[in-house]
Structures are given as C-alpha cells and as structure tokens.
Amino acid sequence: MAPQTPKQSIAAENRKARFHYEIIDTLEAGIVLTGTEVKSLRGGKATIAESYATEEGGEMWLINSFVPEYLQANRFNHEPKRRRKLLVHKTQLNRLAGAVQRDGMTLVPLKLYFNEQGRAKLELAVARGKNAPDKRETMKERDWNRQKQRVMKEGSRGD
C-alpha cells in the first residue's frame, strides 16, 4: 500500500477489504469521471465498499460504486451508481483479467483518492476471498497486536 503523502486526499476508502480478502497485489488505475463527479468526490461522501472491477470488451470497469449527486449541478448531474471506466495499460489489463479467470481472484477497490496533480486515482487490489477460519485468525492477530502495544506502553511508563 502506498504511503499517504500530505498532498494526497482520500475521497473514499474500502476499510473492510483487507478483512474480507487476502490482498495478493495492488496497482494504481486512473478513473474516467464527469465534472460533477469530481466536485462530489472532493466532498468525500463517495462509497466503494460494495464495488468491484471487471474486464469487459478489452476495457476495465468499476461497477457498483456510489458517488452522490453534486447538489449545485441541478439537471446536469450524473447518475450516482453508473459504471465508471478505469484507465490501465493493456499489459496490466491482460494480467488482471488472466488472474481473475484462471485463479478465481477478484478485483477489489481499496481507496479512491486525488494524487499530487489533483487527478482522481483508484487503488485496485487483486484479492482472494477469505473463509471464516481465516477471518478469525485475522481478528486474533489484530487483538494480539493491540495487547502487545498496550503492554509495551505500560512498560515504558513504569520506569
């Protein structure tokens, strides 16, 4: 995961993705947006939690993402749940489509953000779904790390 720089602003984040999926690989993709979608994204009310990406007709598409209507746009507004085209290189597209078809992976968006140049980007992950025992293991590991931090914090105070 790319570290967030001060100039990078996150418009939407899929926090549960790392819990529900085992992340294999990530990549940055551009996204085709209309003007009202960009204005609405800057407000930070978008949702990508239930969305996914798919390859159709030699192009990559983001499906089921929600970008609310921009209130000041009146009749020139966009459709909130429309399919949005993702901009990836042909070699990346072929690699991703192959992983999805061959290995049963899925393409999950992790976050939607604006980079330093002000362009909207989508961090996309090639992921495999976790089953219930894997999720329990993740919760145990998270609890253990939290306890470890608590003990170390208390130990440093007791000097």
Structure description:
The protein has helices spanning 17-20, 35-42, 90-103, 132-157; strands at residues 9-13, 21-31, 52-56, 59-63, 84-87, 106-114, 120-129. The protein has 159 residues and is an alpha+beta fold. Strands 1-6-7-2-5-4-3 form a seven-stranded antiparallel beta sheet. The longest helix is centred in the C-terminal third of the chain and has 26 residues, at 132-157. The model has no long low-confidence stretch (mean pLDDT 82).
Tell me the quaternary state: single chain
Overall CATH class? Mainly Beta
Count of helical stretches: 4
- Outline the biggest β-sheet: 7 strands, antiparallel
Please trace the helix and strand order, writing H or E for each element: EHEHEEEHEEH
As residue ranges, the low-confidence spans are: none
Q: From the alpha-carbon coordinates, what is the Rg to the nearest angstrom?
A: 19 Å
Helix proportion of residues, in percent? 25-40%
The SS-based structural class is: alpha+beta
InterPro entries: SmpB, SsrA-bd_prot, SsrA-bd_prot_CS
Region (Disordered): 130-159
Protein name: SsrA-binding protein
Keywords: Cytoplasm, RNA-binding
